[in-house]
Amino acid sequence: MDATTRIEKALEAAIERAEVPESPPKLAAAIRYAVFPGGARIRPRLCLAVAAACGDDHPHLTEAAAASIEMLHCASLVHDDLPCFDDAATRRGKISVHKAYSEAQAVLVGDALIVMAFEALGRGAALVPARLPGLITTIARSTGMPNGIIAGQAWESEPNVSLSAYHKAKTGSLFAAATVAGALAAGAEPDRWRLLGERIGEAYQVADDIHDLMSKSEETGKPSGQDAMHGRPSATAELGYDGAVARLQDLLSQAIQSIPPCPGAAELRGVIMAASKAFVPKGIAQRAA
Amino acid sequence: MDATTRIEKALEAAIERAEVPESPPKLAAAIRYAVFPGGARIRPRLCLAVAAACGDDHPHLTEAAAASIEMLHCASLVHDDLPCFDDAATRRGKISVHKAYSEAQAVLVGDALIVMAFEALGRGAALVPARLPGLITTIARSTGMPNGIIAGQAWESEPNVSLSAYHKAKTGSLFAAATVAGALAAGAEPDRWRLLGERIGEAYQVADDIHDLMSKSEETGKPSGQDAMHGRPSATAELGYDGAVARLQDLLSQAIQSIPPCPGAAELRGVIMAASKAFVPKGIAQRAA
C-alpha cells in the first residue's frame, strides 16, 4: 500500500469511530470537514518514511502514529483559525470550520481531534504496549506545554519572543514528533531521528513565512499577510527575504545530512526532497539538494 | 498519604512540567489558575477509591489516572465557560479563565490540559505499559466522540436530545472513566466497575440540575439558572423538582448496590456517601443510603 493510501485509511478509520448513530451529528460532520480533504499530509508521510527506514515491523502502529500526528495538526489549524486567534475565513482553499459550522463546533472539533489522536495511539499499540509510553509522551510533548505546538501558539500572545524558540514550538515540534514517533513505532532508537524532524519543521515554517509574504490568497488557500497583520514573529520580518531564503536552504541541507545510516536512507532522502517541493517556494529546494 | 494529598500532589507534578523557564508565561499561569484551587475533586477521589478496593498495586499509576481525569474535567470547565458556550464570568467562586486571562488563553488552557492528561498517563505507566492501552482508550472514550464529555457538550447545539443520553455523555462518561480507570490502574477486571461510575455521574448531573434551579450564584460559585437560560436539557425541566429528587435518590441507590464484592467494599461505600454529600442537596443523600 502506498503512503497516501495508508495515511488516508488510518485517518478514515479514526474519524469513522465518531460517526455512529449516537453521535451528535453536527460535530461528527465538522470533524470530517476538518480532516478531509487534507493538505500535503507532510507530517504523517515523514512518520511513515522514518518507520520504513527502521524496518516498520508493526505497520498498524506506524499508521496509528501517523494518523495521530495528522489529527493533532488538523486540531491546531481549526483552533488557530478561531476569531480569538487568526480569525481566518478560509483554510486549505475552503471555508474555515468556525465559519462553516460555528465557533462552538470549531472549539469542540479541535478538542475531539486531540482526544482521538491519543485514542488512536492507544488502539494501535494494543499488541505492542511496551512502545506506547514513549509514543504518548513524545507526541504529547510535541503538542502541549512547554515546547509543543500549543505553547507555540501561546507565544503569539507574549511581548518578547525568540524567533527560533517560537518556530521550534509552533511547527518544528510536531515534525520532530513525526520522525521520532516513526522510529518508536518501529521499535528503533528514537533520539537520532529528532534532528531530522526539527530541521524539516523549521524549514517548513520559514518557507511558510516566505509564502506568507509573497503569495496571493488564491495560491495558499488562506488569506496572505497573516503574520504581518497579527504582528507575529516571522523569518522574513527578522531576516529579510534573502536572509530567509538562505536560512531555508541551510535548514534543508542540515535535515538531509542528519539522516542516520540506515537501510532505507536513500529512499528517505527522496521522500524528504519530494515533501520539501510541496512547501518550498519554487527554485529553492533544488539548490539545497 | 490521604486521598486529597495524593490527588493534589499528582496534579502539582503534572502542572509543574508546564512551568519551566522556556514556557510561555501567560499560558503557564492560566493553566495553574484553571486547576488550583480545585472543586471537590470527586472524579479523582472515586478513581483512587476503586483502585484501593482492587489492591492498588501501582499507586503511582493510579495517581496519574486520577490526575488525568481531573485535568480533563478542568479542561472541559474552561472551554464550557467560553463566550461561544456558557459565557460564564465566574467558576468555582472566582473569575473564569477567559475573563481573567483572555479567550485565546482559555482555548489554549483547555487544549494543553487535554494533552497533559494523556501525557500524565504515558509517564505513569512507564513501569506497567501493559495497562496503558486500556487506560488510554477508556479515558479517551469518556472524553471524546461519540459518547464522551465533548460529545455531551456538542449535544447542547442539537435540536433533539434525549436527557439520559445527554447526561450520560456530558457527565456520566467521565465518572465512568474514573471507576473503570481505577480498576485498570490496579490491574483489575474493569467492566464490573462501569455501572458505579455511570450512576454516580448521572446522580451528579441531576443534583446539578436541582442546584441550578434552586441556588443563588453565591452558593455554587457560578451564575444560577444557566441551564434554563441556555435552553439546555435538564432533569428539573423534564421531571419537575419532585421527579428529579426521586430520580437522584434512585441513582444513588443503584450506584451503591452496583459495587462488586471486593475487600474494600465497605470503605468504598463510605467514600461514595461522603462524596455524594458534597454535591447532593441537603436532606436527599441520607434518604438514599
Describe this structure in words.
The structure is a homodimer of 289-residue chains. Chain A has one domain (3-288): Farnesyl Diphosphate Synthase (Orthogonal Bundle). Chain A has 289 residues and is mostly helical. Chain A has helices at 3-16, 25-35, 42-53, 59-80, 97-100, 103-124, 132-143, 149-155, 163-185, 194-214, 217-220, 226-229, 235-257, 265-279, 285-288, and strands at residues 90-91, 94-95. Chain A contains 15 helices and two strands. The mean pLDDT of chain A is 89. In chain A, α3 runs antiparallel to α4 (59-80), α3 (42-53) packs antiparallel against α14 and α4 runs antiparallel to α6.
Any idea what the radius of gyration of chain A is? 18 Å
Q: What's the architecture of chain A in CATH terms? A: Orthogonal Bundle
CATH homolog superfamily of chain A: Farnesyl Diphosphate Synthase
What's the helix count of chain A? 15
Tell me the number of structural domains of chain A: 1
Fraction in helix of chain A: 55-70%
Largest interchain contact: A-B, 61 and 61 residues
- Under CATH at level 1, the class of chain A stands as Mainly Alpha
Overall geometric form of chain A: globular
Pick out the low-confidence regions of chain A: none
Task: Name the assembly state.
Answer: homodimer
Q: Taking strands numbered 1, 2, ... along the chain, how are they ordered across the largest sheet of chain A?
A: 1-2
Please give the largest β-sheet of chain A. 2 strands, antiparallel
pLDDT averaged residue by residue of chain A: 89
